[in-house]
Amino acid sequence: MDINSIMSSQLMELQQTVQMSVMQNALNLNTSAAVKLLEEMPQPQAAAHPYKGTAVDISV
Q1: What is the pTM of this model?
Q2: Can you tell me the distance from the alpha carbon of 29 to that of 26, in angstroms, rounded to the nearest whole number?
Q3: Known InterPro entries for this protein (predicted)?
Q4: Nearest 5 degrees, angle CA 22-CA 31-CA 12?
Q5: 33 FRET partner, CA 20 to 30 A, in 1, 4, 16, 58?
Q6: Smallest Cα–Cα separation from 30: which of 19, 18, 22?
């Protein structure tokens, strides 16, 4: 095997490693941004029941 083919294969492996690293970093950034957005979302308030707890029906 000549030096050019060895260097070429090593360069391809390095490019793949860098691509995977960049993709992993982008995924981590997107995940943390999504978590931050979810944490900042306003929490829904429980809807009050229209009459429960305010009126008592004692008629029999």
Answers
A1: 0.53
A2: 5
A3: YjfB_motility
A4: 15
A5: 16
A6: 22
